[in-house]
From TrEMBL:
Keywords: Cytoplasm, Nucleus. It comes from Micromonas pusilla (strain CCMP1545) (Picoplanktonic green alga). This is CDAN1-interacting nuclease 1. It comes from the Eukaryota. It is found in: Cytoplasm; Nucleus. GO terms for cellular component: cytoplasm; nucleus.
Amino acid sequence: MKLAEYEEIRAHITSLPSDVFPDADALRAKHPSASLDALVSIYSQESSRRVRGAHGKHLRAIGSHAARYVAGEDVFRIAADIDFPPCQLVRLLLEHLLGLGHKAVGPCLRDPFGKIPSSPPPESPAARGVPGVPGVPGSAICDRLKVDVERCVAWDHVASPAVDVMRHAAGREYEILLERRLEELRVPFVTEDALRAEGHAKTPDVKLTLPIAVNGRIVNWIDSKASFLDPIVHVERGVDQFQGYVNRFGPGMVIYWLGVIDELAEESDGDVFIVDDFPGDMEITKLKLME
């Protein structure tokens, strides 16, 4: 995908409210060369950036959001009004109203009826009373939070724990695909788990026992990414990480299975070779040890 086309897609996605999923059919019709997987990945990455960018603002305003919630306003209405994913809002509500620590919120989202207490802790705002909204029992707030957490987890397509589970599962599926392709070619390799067992802290997904050449470029390791490579991903999560692999293992290759910006792939002329699929058999040369 050309950078200009990516920027056009990104501009459309970022113009939408956070609770509106883009019309994939319309985007595909306008950008026929873009795969559905690429569009979904671009949307997911932009949504995550929006959440990170807005988190501090809503953390500072949580007192106001909580007052609206305790007064009876629906959590989805508040989330839509402030343009913030429902799961992220309910996380902040749990922390603020019940005084929960950040690590305690995750289990509440996974099992709201089992982990959210029937009555709020004595010193929490829900127990003491929310300013401007007198007379609401703490137990009623807890009961409502249980139901609303379950609703948010079920319907939030941006920040639900289910999204993280699916992202992790997709990442593992592509790692398995990479390993199978190497096995089919009879290219020996060491997995990330084996490398970590040897004491390496940060490792690529596979380290080749013997390097291969891909279109004439030496590859000692391969990293698998179940995502789309855009300029921000390249800077924030790519350059330093991959240079560390180069320093330890030599030149390598990164596969962004869901697509890449053409200009970024064309710039990968150093020790990190960026591609959007596993190379074809004719592109690969298996190297041999010198006798």
